[in-house]
Amino acid sequence: MTAVSTEPERQPSSRRRSGWIARLIGGAIAVAAIGVASSGSISSAALGSDIRNSMTIIAPAAAGGGWDGVAREMQQGMKANGIVNNVQVVNMPGAGGTIALGNLSVLSGQPNNILVGGTGLLAATIQFDSAATLDDVTPLATIVEEYDVIVVPADSPYETLDDLVEAWRDDPKALPWSGGGSFDQLVVTDLALAAGVHPIDVTYIPSDGGGEAIQAMLNGTVSAAAGGYPDNIDQIESGRLRALALVAPERVDGIDIPTAAEQGYDISLTNWRSLSAPAGLSGEDREALVELVLETLDTPEWADAMTRYHWTEKVLTGDELDAFLVEEHERIAQLYEEMDQ
């Protein structure tokens, strides 16, 4: 897949090189970040003997993004209902979330820390060949999933997904795409495979967030985009963007957009969000953390967040979660291989 960027330093010449860079950055920052946080965040929370007394939720991105939203809504649910006495959120951006993952991986046996992650974090460990992976932490649960939507400008000549795909097949490089992150690029790759377009022929212009991707469409830089439904809903409802397909396993109540699958394109990669704890926990600690998470998901505050963010519930724990993560790793790794062939 051809990725065009205005910031070439973010586009390593190969995954081997990007993996080396990620290890270098991760190793250097992991120690520094933990040292900085020790005065009042990660290490202080780890001193608590009871997870109901103190907890740090780590968002592996800057404030304002999807992972940060999950962290702060979890914090609100815990605080408002007395589930945990002292809950703080620490933002630790960098390398698609793998910097934060590296930090969590060195906190072995300290159950007072939870990392928000998901599809994007799993993808980043593969894309950057990161030193730390999800095998180095304790998965607790997946909690929600968010669906991408395929959109074009309102004045686009493409009225349907078939229209778009037909033009794409005819001249893939002449129909540039964008998206708000690595997950969106995976969705475009998955659609390319389903549509019979070779991923290496796709022109994909990465954007720094959904808002930038939308602007790239509206100013004519790209012809189509994949992006999170919550990021695009306002532009769709205002009539500035036309939604051609929802990338979801089936129709979603309250979203009047046909799925890609029902239009003949079998793609259903979802942007799920997960929670993990450090490795080295006892079985009792893991069970207690899972119970705490499930209790938080049952609060009115979390229910309100589900509505506001247009999230769909996806709660997996235990063996079911472990099997799901293996399947998703294989699926995403295959998509990255397709991009490089």
How would you characterize the overall build of this protein?
- This is Tripartite tricarboxylate transporter substrate binding protein.
- Keywords: Membrane, Transmembrane, Transmembrane helix.
- InterPro entries: BUG, Bug_dom1.
- With 341 residues, the protein is an alpha/beta fold.
- It folds into 2 domains: 14-146 and 273-340, Bordetella uptake gene, domain 1 (D-Maltodextrin-Binding Protein, domain 2, 3-Layer(aba) Sandwich), CATH 3.40.190.150; 148-263, Periplasmic binding protein-like II (D-Maltodextrin-Binding Protein, domain 2, 3-Layer(aba) Sandwich).
- Helices cover 44% and strands 20% of the residues.
- The termini are close together.
- The model is unreliable at 4-49 (pLDDT under 50).
Q: Tally the helices.
A: 12
The tally of structural domains comes to 2
- Rounded average pLDDT: 87
Structural class: alpha/beta
Q: Judging from the principal axes of the Cα atoms, what is the shape?
A: globular
User: From the 3D coordinates, which CATH architecture of the largest domain would you assign?
Assistant: 3-Layer(aba) Sandwich
Poorly predicted segments: 4-49
Residues in helices, as a percent range: 40-55%
Q: How large is the radius of gyration?
A: 20 Å
- The CATH homologous superfamily of the largest domain corresponds to Bordetella uptake gene, domain 1
| Oligomeric form | single chain
List keywords for this structure.
341 residues; alpha/beta; D-Maltodextrin-Binding Protein, domain 2; 2 domains; six-stranded mixed β-sheet; 12 helices; globular; transmembrane; BUG
